[in-house]
Automatic annotation (TrEMBL):
InterPro entries: Nucleotide-diphossugar_trans (IPR029044)
Domain of life: Bacteria
Protein name in the entry: Glycosyltransferase
UniProt source species: Faecalibacterium prausnitzii
Length: 310
């Protein structure tokens, strides 16, 4: 059902003002129709896959718990199913599983695995999954997006073509000045007309990101240290994890569409916190590069000539 709506959407990086307005109207339509569709259309039976396992992992918080079931419904209705779907919740925010919304608990019968953990903010969506399933393919998802039915299929097909890469729908392109990483706001937002693979591509979590098996092997999992270095910049930490191993990123398509956001889900954009708050993206990246001994070269290059690659 969502595939049909996304068919009429235009990639935001290339959209005109009129097309952006059409995208927004499609998002309104999706928000109105998808809950009805889910209520009347049974979820598919759980299917098993052969070969590598794919684990989808996400988290949420109290302001979004009432509607996260819609995101999970969209993940359960994929043409290429996930082998596991994990929802990580803070045990401080959700002390009793029985008090969770009934429409969320019902999805456990369809394969949803609800786990409880310490509250390490947005890192919950990957931190614990990466340790338990490091030998599997891991896909991170946001908790307020409506994913098209071919979302995982697109990531998986790209993974099969580029098995050693991080695969994503959205990515910025890191730029450089004088042999150093340029300020975050000077990067090429959404990297228009760039696909990769490239070490300079910076995956953006909201679109969905696939990490190949072994991506997190040998990584230090110290939540206290991470929260000091970059408490709100999980995308930064995830990029640095791969930079240590010189793992490039590649996009599913050159210019991807932006997924519809669930309305009234109380979106709290960490990007605005990072760029204007006490812990900026630039500060977080500098902290991480220093701690993990990552150089600009390991992030894609040291000169402006690197901008055109990918």
């Amino acid at each position: 059902m969502l595939n049909e709506l996304y068919h009429f959407a235009t990639p935001w990086a290339k959209a005109t003002k009129r097309q952006i307005n059409v995208n927004r109207m499609l998002g309104v339509a999706a928000n109105a129709l998808y809950p009805i569709y889910c209520a009347w259309s049974p979820l598919p039976k759980q299917r098993t896959t052969q070969g590598e396992r794919m684990v989808v992992s996400l988290t949420t918080f109290p302001l979004r718990i009432g509607k996260v079931h819609l995101t999970i419904q969209s993940i359960l209705r994929q043409s290429r199913p996930a082998d596991r779907i994990l929802l990580w919740l803070s045990k401080e925010e959700f002390p009793e599983e029985a008090q969770l919304p009934a429409n969320l608990l019902r999805l456990k019968e369809k394969g949803l695995d609800i786990r409880f953990c310490d509250n390490i903010r947005s890192f919950k969506k990957v931190f614990y999954t990466a340790q338990e399933f490091e030998n599997d393919v891991i896909v991170t998802a946001d908790d307020d997006a409506l994913y098209p039915e071919n979302w995982l299929e697109g990531l998986w097909d790209t993974h099969e073509k580029y098995p050693g890469c991080v695969c994503c729908y959205r990515a910025h392109e890191i730029t450089f000045e004088g042999g150093r990483v340029a300020p975050y706001q000077e990067w090429y937002g959404l990297s228009p007309d760039k696909k990769g693979p490239s070490e300079a591509l910076f995956p953006v979590g909201v679109g969905g990101v696939l990490y190949p098996a072994g991506y997190f092997s040998g990584i230090e999992f110290d939540s206290g240290k991470i929260m000091k270095l970059c408490p709100t910049a999980d995308d930064m930490w995830l990029k640095i994890v791969g930079a240590q191993k010189r793992i490039p990123a590649v996009k599913v398509s050159t210019n991807s569409k932006e997924w519809f956001t669930i309305r009234n889900s109380q979106r709290q954009c960490l990007m605005s916190v990072n760029t204007a708050g006490r812990m900026r993206n630039d500060e977080a990246l500098q902290n991480l590069m220093e701690y993990y001994h990552v150089t600009a070269e390991m992030l894609g290059g040291t000169s402006t000539e690197q901008k055109g690659k990918g």
